[in-house]
Amino acid sequence: MTAYIRFATENAALLELMYAGKHRPGATRLVEAARAPFGLMSGLIAEGQEQGTLRAGDPERVGLVLFATVQGIASLINGDLVDPALLDELVETAADQFVRGARPAA
């Protein structure tokens, strides 16, 4: 997660271009490439659910919420709303809250 946010904050214009590029006509390959990481994330979440580490639920939805959290941290840093020096600490807190909050109910 930290690597993605670091990329997103150090290359904000490139990230924006990447997102904008997939909306142009004929960009099917870009759209497919953008979906690949979501499939990987969903697979990891499903694996955690199968092992009993994470609560049952739709892995795609859980992954989308996790990605939105990561993207939100990047946006806050890019918008100068959060000090970039807090990046590692914020990612650690987000990951901890995700895992704790996604644990099966006791």
Overview of the molecule:
The chain is an all-alpha fold. It has one domain: Tetracycline Repressor, domain 2 (Orthogonal Bundle), CATH 1.10.357. The protein has helices at 2-10, 12-21, 28-50, 59-78, 87-101. The model has no long low-confidence stretch (mean pLDDT 85).
Structural class: mainly alpha
Secondary-structure element string: HHHHH
CATH topology grouping = Tetracycline Repressor, domain 2
> Quick one: overall form?
flat
**Counted beta strands:** 0
Domain unit count: 1
Radius of gyration: 15 Å
CATH 2nd-level architecture: Orthogonal Bundle
CATH superfamily assignment? Tetracycline Repressor, domain 2
Q: Low-confidence parts lasting 5 or more residues at pLDDT below 50?
A: none
What proportion of the residues is helical, as a percent range? over 70%
The main pleated sheet reads as: none
Quote the distance from N terminus to C terminus: 27 Å
What is the tally of helical segments? Answer: 5
User: Approximately how much beta-strand content do the residues carry?
Assistant: under 5%
Keywords for this structure?
106 residues, mainly alpha, 5 helices, flat, Tetracycline Repressor, domain 2
Helix and strand layout, with pairings?
Blueprint (H helix, E strand, L loop, with lengths): L1 H9 L1 H10 L6 H23 L8 H20 L8 H15 L5
Helix pairs in contact: 1-4, 3-4, 4-5
